[in-house]
Amino acid sequence: xxxxxxxxxxxxxxxxxxxxxxxxxxxxxxxxxxxxxxxxxxxxxxxxxxxxxxxxxxxxxxxxxxxxxxxxxxxxxxxxxxxxxxxxxxxxxxxxxxxxxxxxxxxxxxxxxxxxxxxxxxxxxxxxxxxxxxxxxxxxxxxxxxxxxxxxxxxxxxxxxxxxxxxxxxxxxxxxxxxxxxxxxxxxxxxxxxxxxxxxxxxxxxxxxxxxxxxxxxxxxxxxxxxxxxxxxxxxxxxxxxxxxxxxxxxxxxxxxxxxxxxxxxxxxxxxxxxxxxxxxxxxxxxxxxxxxxxxxxxxxxxxxxxx
Length: 308
Prior knowledge:
By secondary structure, the protein is mainly alpha-helical. The protein has one domain (36-300). 72% of the residues lie in helices and 0% in strands. It starts with 10 loop residues before the first helix and ends with a helix.
């Protein structure tokens, strides 16, 4: 009696044989500083559609089941503006020393809000997406970038309100004033992205980082000229070294760049000399810092799945 020919290979051997026929693809991170950085940037670009979906998810999750939805992104800064205007401007008399105090404060709050939202949300972005990170292979930098994209969207909404406020006040910026806006925005975005990458990675191993960030942002808020003017600072810091220390905070310079753009009533008010040069220097520093933060992120991401 003849029998049908049977395969001499087991199913596991057949599967192994098929895998051996496939071309080799290296899934390990690229080695080398520049090569590794370029590889990660390329990976993020290849997943740009996913990045867009994550940004939309961040925006929808924030106001999920909310009746007002994105209106809340306007109510919070407007409420802060009202509090600072009434308490600091009227009760403590800041409005008498700073012309058009409402525009001045709202310019600073708009710039500061972008930075704080990007950094605080970015710090918890890796931990908050633990499920995806443990199951799906993708560039982990995409999660801090998604929180930054969400913060930029909210910033754009607030920027429209700020421009509308200047129109209502009859003090619309014009001419060379607008040159400060892209420079200041570049400083904020680069600084926020660098800190988001670095802190999101450290937060995986040390969960107290997110709480420290909240305290640090509260301290640095008052170390920036948002509720008070540079004239008041320079009047108290009479030593050049102290002024240089105060201006060593990139957000201080970026906020003053926003004020130079939108605070038309403060045209004759004192500002640090060569503000545009300082902004360009901080753009260079921010670029280098973001590059180094990404390389630190890349070194720490190897054990993300285990730690999460």
